[in-house]
Fold this sequence. Notes:
The structure holds two protein chains of two kinds.
Chain A: H1 3-10, H2 32-36, E1 40-45, H3 55-65, E2 76-80, E3 85-89, H4 98-102, E4 108-110, E5 117-119, H5 129-133, E6 140-142, E7 147-149, H6 159-163, E8 169-174, H7 181-196
Antiparallel strand pairs in A: 1-8, 2-3, 4-5, 6-7
Chain B: E1 4-8, H1 12-24, E2 29-34, H2 44-48, H3 62-67, E3 70-74, E4 78-82, E5 87-90, E6 95-97, E7 100-103, E8 107-109, E9 122-123, H4 128-138, E10 145-149, H5 153-164, E11 168-173, H6 185-197, E12 201-204, E13 208-214, E14 217-222, E15 227-230, E16 232-235, E17 239-241, E18 257-258, E19 270-272, E20 277-281, E21 284-288, H7 293-307, E22 320-325, E23 328-334, E24 342-348, E25 353-360, E26 363-372, H8 376-380, H9 382-391, H10 398-404, H11 409-415, H12 418-422, H13 450-459
Parallel strand pairs in B: 1-2, 1-7, 2-3, 7-19, 9-16, 10-11, 10-16, 11-12, 18-20
Antiparallel strand pairs in B: 4-5, 5-6, 8-17, 13-14, 14-15, 20-21, 22-23, 23-26, 24-25, 25-26
Helix pairs in contact in B: 1-7, 10-11
Amino acid sequence: MAAQWAHHRAAGGRLLPRMETFAIVNATTVNARWEKNEMAKMLNIVPEKCTGCMQCELACSWVQTGTFQPSRSLIRVNVFDEEASYAPYTCLQCDEAWCMTACPVNAIGVDEATGCKVVSESLCVGCHLCTIACPFGTVFTTPHTDTATKCNLCGGEPACATTCPTDAIVYTEGKQSGDWFAPWAQKVAANHASALDGAPSAN
Amino acid sequence: MAQHHLIIGGGPAATNALETIREFDADASITLVCDEPTHSRMALPYWLAGKIPEKHTHTGDDAYFKKLGAQVRIGERVDHVDPASNSVTLSGGDKLDFDKLLIATGSSPVSPSIPGKDLPGVQPMWSLAHTQSVLDATAGSAQPRVVLVGAGFIGFIVLNAMFKRKWDLAVVERESQVLPRMLDADSAAGVTDYLTSHGVGIHTGTSVTAIKDDGGAKSVELDNGTVLPADIVILATGIRPNLDLIDGSGIETDEGILVNDHMQTNFANVYAAGDIAQGPDLYTDKPAIHAIQTTAVDHGRVAGANMAGQTVAYPGSLLMNIADVCGLQCASFGNWNDPHAETMTVNNSRQHIYRKFLWTGDQLTGAIFTGDAKDVGMLTDIGMIKGVLQTRTPLGGWKEFLRENPFDVRRAYIGAGVAQKLIGTTLTGRPARPRQFHFGGAKPVASVGTAHQAFVSTKK
């Protein structure tokens, strides 16, 4: 019996110690962008500037679906009215690309010009797997075509950023889409922890 | 010297391993042996439904394998694996040596012991050949009568395909509810009600005693006395791993091949992935076979990276399923069937909207959803539930918030800080690469319609 296997079996019958989430392990080589540490253009959100006006949702639904239906927008504003805190939220074009790896027919690929993950509508069979595989909740189903849809950065000219009146959404270079997210979410969590307890929030 | 990798199988675990080995090792020699063309079983029902052509289900072709520099032996079977001599024997007698071996031979339908199961027109619906056979048998018939034996996930994706073709459908399930491995009794009752109102005959809590041939047409006899007429009968009573080829090999098995978090078997240079591999599960301490696409892909990528000399540990797979049941979307995650969990349930039986959260303390450990595809609530936060489960984020005060607002998962997800845990984390230590085969050579391109140009031009 291989030593490694014996080790795993010996550890209390469990195969491995649990991890909180996928870990970066032994990243000896990386793909082109990572290797060169290149900047790529991405949607950067400045939550402090968002007023919750929802123009991005209207613009997105219009340019992506031809209707003014915020319910079909691919960007969604998170509204925390009780603390006047808002932030638009859409696909972060994450490195793991759970939607892309999950697809059984390789209908999700990477657009060369922008680096974003895109659904090829002609390839999507409508199995819905990507909508449950994406742990960010940013892949949707278009009801009348029964195909998956997600943010494609409007091919490099995102309408949400174009329309945002306060520059809360900007399409600029960055290293990791979503850098803005943690500080904002932590602030929301802190404010809300007290709100949930019934106490007035701190700021 | 370049390593020689041998992959047995052609499903998602096998092709993902192939691409991952090549991603990490440009020099490795790779051979893939598969008795069917490499294809996606999950896509077969869409071919059956007439939505896509047969070739659309394929996940590789000659040009693809050439690009990856892989030798392929399609249409050949491996009969026996011998880890002691680092070789396998093909059914034609050829022997192939390996430095590292991946067994990704998947699973096959179990054959129920029903008299008449071998009659023509009685078959499983699992392979390319099975799909072609159903299409041949029903060609020219406007509304063939079909009896599906088994109301599990596989039976139901076949049901959905036939429903789209407006065939005359009846389902027989031995257990007391439909989708017994995916839904609880209450949500399953809603699904049965939905299907019945859409003209599908549902017979639960009853078994098929015999299938008889009435000169072409068949009759399916149930133990409650019901007799169902059928032109074809689909057997979907479960699957089991294809373990025959490792008989006597010394590879350790339980329900499937036991693998560690590197997808290694008890032989350090033999790996297993996909439906055949029983490996780490995020929500139980016992190694599990999930037999789902996402687990097969993860397994294949982890196995491929480790075979290519990386050190990649798999945290475990999350059980999840989503099925389009004739227009009603049904999904479940994690420990959806935990009898000890605290539960919160919304059940709008009139509109077939069902949502159940299962809790251990303030940790969400499982969930069940049903709802109309047009129900925005169903389809916009369902991935967030997966994120909460995958990161095992304690929801604190948001638990009570969800009791009051079960359709406002978004706020709990943000407030509990789930997304930032996921940013920047990857399975193999680098960004996932797009798969290198696209049906018809389709190129992934971000396209926008004319509305976009009209809109953006006014804002410049």
